[in-house]
Amino acid sequence: MPTEPLPLPAVATPEVIEIERALTRITYLSTRARRHDRLMAMAGVPLDRAAVALLRQVADSEPLRPGELAQRLGVEASHVTRTVQQLQKSGYVTRVPDPDDGRAQRIELTGAGREAVDRIRDAGARGMQLALSGWSPEELGRLATLFHRMVDDVLSCAVDDDTDQSAVSA
């Protein structure tokens, strides 16, 4: 049963405006094609952004049906189907029978897929370590705690009732 979205406040505080601006900047920077290409080169994984997002989502969950993957990633099912085919040809994912429905299949990482995700995450973490090298361990701990809290709070107040709240692990 859908719930009613929470009413938006009339005005955002200056602090929240600055947080939104910072998130917009970091989202832009993190999704730039050149950054993705450098990350893939560091990881030694020749995948496009859509394939990486799908691999990360599969790595963070039980094997999922393609429709569930599409919902979690916020894309059309046909997009997931094409990306899964690409990843399957490359040996990163496989289709396995759905234990709940013998007619359906789920998408699961292969050993090569798990290794690729691990290399991508390691390269990303090393890049982040370099970017935040001037921060103290205490500052990094506070930032991590606050980021997780913010994500949880944003998910709990999702305006779009169709949003699957587990999509954040992509």
Topology:
Elements: H1 14-30, H2 33-43, H3 49-59, H4 66-73, H5 77-89, E1 93-98, E2 101-109, H6 111-131, H7 137-156
Antiparallel strand pairs: 1-2
Q: What is shown here, in short?
A:
The protein has 7 helices and 2 strands; from the N terminus they run αααααββαα. By secondary structure, it is mainly alpha-helical. Helix 3 (49-59) crosses helix 5 and helix 4 (66-73) packs across helix 5 (77-89).
Low-confidence stretches: 161-170
**Total strand count, please?**
2
Q: What is the molecular shape?
A: globular
Approximately how much beta-strand content do the residues carry? Answer: 5-15%
Q: Would you tell me the structural class of the helices and strands?
A: mainly alpha
Strand adjacency order, main sheet: 1-2
Q: Percentage of helical residues?
A: 55-70%
Count of discrete alpha- or pi-helical segments spanning 4 or more residues: 7
Distance between the termini: 26 Å
Mean pLDDT, nearest integer? 87
Q: What summary fits the major beta sheet?
A: 2 strands, antiparallel
Rg, alpha carbons: 18 Å
What is the H-and-E element order?
HHHHHEEHH
